[in-house]
Write a structure and sequence with these properties.
This protein is mainly β. It has no helices and eleven strands.
Length: about 120
């Protein structure tokens, strides 16, 4: 129904910036919330940021608030995660996910993109 493809990950020094992209296909995002999650080796997957597609409301994990910004481009069916002031603890595989309206969890996930922050 929905396919998500992340891109933009890579290696960056602490204090640097990256912008991740999540391109969606298969259907529109109308009524969907879009989220970014991340998972480091040996750790649980954690929430990073969310945007309500219909209203533009955003929320962030405390660990990234003030440094990361989630945004969307409806015309391109793409969601972005701008990451500034990166820290080594931001190192993880970052996943894009979509949650349909009324769903309890996120039903669609991308394959992930690696972000590595060196000190």
């Amino acid at each position: 129904q929905v396919q998500l493809v992340e891109s933009g990950g890579g290696l960056v020094q602490a204090g640097g910036s990256l912008r991740l992209s999540c391109a969606a296909s298969g259907r529109t995002f109308s009524g969907y919330s879009m989220g970014w999650f991340r998972q480091a080796p040996g750790k649980e997957r954690e929430f990073v940021a969310r945007i309500a597609w219909s209203g533009g409301t955003t929320s962030y994990a405390d660990s990234v608030k003030g440094r990361f910004t989630i945004s969307r481009d409806k015309a391109k069916n793409t969601v972005y995660l701008q990451m500034n002031s990166l820290k080594p603890e931001d190192t993880a595989v970052y996943y894009c996910a979509a949650k349909p309206r009324g769903a309890v969890g996120y039903d669609y996930w991308g394959q992930g993109t690696q972000v590595t922050v060196s000190s």
